[in-house]
Amino acid sequence: MNANSLHAILRLRNMSFAYPHINPANLESSLHLLFARISPIMKHFIPLGLLLATFSLTCLTSSNVFAQSMPRENVVEVPAIGEGLCVSNVFQTNMVIQRDKPIHIWGWANPGEKVTVSFGGNEATAEATKDRKWEVTLPPLPANHSPQKLTIQGSDETLTLENILIGDVWVLGGQSNMEFPLERVENGELEIVSADFPELRILTVPVGIGPEPKPAFARLYEWSDWSKRHFHKGNWDLCTPESVRELSAIGYVFARRVHKASGVPIGVIDASRGGTTVETWTPLPVLRSMNSDTTKAKLAESDEKVAQWDAQADLDNRIQKHKDLIARLEKEGKPIPDNQKEAPSDLRPGPIGDPNYPGNCYAGMIAPLEGLSVKGAIFHQGFNNAFQGSVGARMYADIFPEMIKAWRGAFKDPEMPFGILSLCTDGYPQTRDDYCEKMLNVGIEIRASQYKTFLDLYNTGDKQIGFVSTYDLRRRWYHPQLKIPAGERIARWALATQYGFDGKLRWKPPMLIEMAKTDGALVLTMDTDVGDPGDGAIEGFAIAGEDGRFHPAIVAYGERGKDDRGRIQYDRRQLVLTSPMVPHPVHYRYAWGRNPMGNLQAGGNSDVPFATQRSDDWDDYEVPKGVLGNDIELPLSRGDRGKILQALREQDKQRRLQEAQLLIEELSN
User: What percent of the chain has pLDDT over 90?
Assistant: First the structure.
């Protein structure tokens, strides 16, 4: 067997893993599909019988072996921009086109070539520019369940996209908790086996980064170092048990609920990426235009890292390390691994190639979608911004509303519906024993900033902004696998505000109308009845005096008066917060833990939690006050953080001692 034959066999083995839709039961037709993927020249080096034998052996090998033999690189099916006449990969067979909005379609052709696009009985013509770009706009069309064709005709070539429906398209954004696939969540398998919805279409955008905005994305099998496998990305697929496994669990449940309740074809575009920050999802020009001290500081820090990066010095250093490794292995008489035989030769991009460099994920994953007509977006993120202290939380509060505005601009709709899912839980649950200690976590401030962003926009008349809490979907892991209820909550918002179910579905969290300070108590007035769904004590509130020493609050309903029998009538819209540890409360916090106590919900048959929030604006290094004195350096050192943590533990200890003493006195009477 010559080298070409061996190489082809290895490629065939790899392809069988990369293309799981190949059917081992029909080897001949499967091979025809494989032949379309590999170099036409290779086919002439390998007899059909040898290919069949190789493919048969491959099909019998376990998927774990495939995962280890598959090269850790992306396998491209269709490039981002092809030669000659082509259309952006966001437009494909099986897609959903947004109803009731202008239909923007774009692609590339030879410079000066006339391109005619036809769809739904309408037609538009454009001429490709010098850089090959063309774009047309067709008039809006109503929802349509009948599969339709879209044709793109050039000078000597015609592209035909088939099985296209007209409905609503939703974009999924955020990091790994949005990206988290259906196959890995609690009860995910039950959803998968019933996921047969031919009018629900799904597209996952491949990973891409800036700093320059990307005009398009490729269709490919993308390698994941996290999962040690390839994921099929960049292709519109019908929702089936096979295709839905890798889709965002939250996104799938959201889409399923909306589709079944509305009866409208639904397309979802998952543009999320794990481990990412809010600033990377915001266009860099927007960040640079912001008059925000925290954002300016972040940009200055990032720019300084880029300025200090020396790609050649980095390469020289890696080459020297390679030489040292080879010398050591030869001295020890050990073989040189195949992946170490060649010295490094690439110039790495450095900090500007970091996915979290400001604007990078927007440039790589949202920019290719710019101009697409969509219904709206849902967004679930925040974990990686929780590593930057209170300064980072303030930056989040500055950037997040600008990010939402930028996304609405990208999809040419300043009133585009945008639903926020708050940061999920992480770590062991907060209890009364460690209540104060568990309040020291910047992730809580991120969650509160997300709610404040919603509240600020909502109160200024933005009726297209949505919000749901997820902190009560508790698991210790920072990827809590209770994604199905999260998807259903944000679907309730969409159905109530966009599909005519307002009045039938509750989504809006209970909102605080007023906080009043009385002698020894804080009185909170809500816009709706609230309570614990288990009819137990309301937990999750903490109150503090001017010293910033928060303690869990005892919560009682306000009194309206008495009925004609002399019985007290309680006001379930009014909560009275007290604590024997806080004689003169001035501020409250609620659900102030990364995995918080907190059971307050809207009254009635709903699971709409009261959102994480606070009345104070104290930073984490100011609670409790006086621990660090006046000489505070940010970000907090480990030693300073330890001092605050010890003070909070002492608060918990003193409260437990007092509660124990009160209990002893009560039992002795």
Answer: 80
Dihedral angle of Cα 62, 65, 66, 69, to the nearest 10 degrees = -160
Tell me which of 508, 530, 546 is where a domain ends.
508
Question: How sure is the predictor about 71, in pLDDT bands with cuts at 50, 70 and 90?
Answer: low
**Pair 392, 541 in one domain:** no
Residues 303 and 242 occupy one common structural domain: yes
Is 0.90 topped by the overall pTM? Answer: no
Query: Which one, of 468, 469, 452, 478, lies nearest residue 386 by Cα?
Result: 478
Cβ(484)–Cβ(249) below 8 Å: yes
Are 467 and 420 in contact by the 8 Å Cβ rule? The answer is yes
- The overall average pLDDT reported for the chain is 89
Longest pairwise C-alpha distance within the chain: 100
Token pair of 112 as six digits: 């000066």
254 shares its domain with 309: yes
Write out pLDDT tens, residues 463-500: 999 999 999 998 877 888 889 999 999 999 999 999 99
Q: Name 274's bridge partners.
A: none
* Closest to 339 (Cα-Cα) out of 352, 326, 354: 326
Angle between helices 442-459 and 389-410 (to 10 degrees): 40
Q: Domain limits at 20? A: 3-71
